[in-house]
Amino acid sequence: MSETEKIQQNKNPLRGLFNYQWILKNIPFFLFLSVLAVLYIANGHMADKTIRNINNTTKELKELQYEYKTLKSEVMFKSEEQQVIKATEPLGLKVIKETPVRLKSEK
After folding, report:
1. Among 9, 56, 95, 106, which residue has the least CB neighbours within 10 Å?
2. Residue pair 87/78 in contact by the 8 Å Cβ criterion
3. pLDDT single digits (tens) 45-99
4. Do 86 and 77 touch, CB atoms closer than 8 A?
């Protein structure tokens, strides 16, 4: 070999590694790597989608909890005796002051 060829080979040591036969020999490995890359990307997208769904569900749950607490406090307020009396006055219902009489049945 002449010195120019040695210098060219020394400049690019990977030149002999990437030849046509080596590429043909490793096509299954390249396909395997590309399938792995696609699966990796798909897994990342599915994880992002799952996290978004979890966040949306958490927000919805908090809103429902707030609504539940609000409705519960309103029901507790409206079920107080004075509030019930105020609500039934327009219907003509009044609180009875005397005790109820128990009826006995004859057998």
Report:
1. 106
2. yes
3. 999 999 999 999 999 999 999 999 999 999 999 888 888 888 888 888 888 888 8
4. no
* Buried-exposed string 5-42: b where 16+ CB fall within 10 A, e elsewhere: eeeeeeeeeeeeeeeeeeeeeeeeeeeeeeeeeeeeee
Q: Considering the entire predicted model, what is its pTM?
A: 0.56
Long-range contacts of 38-47 (CB under 8 A, 24+ apart): none
Say how many residues make up the chain: 107
Alpha helices for 12-106 (secondary structure H):
20-25, 27-78, 81-88
- Convert the pLDDT of each residue in 26-51 to its tens digit: 999 999 999 999 999 999 999 999 99
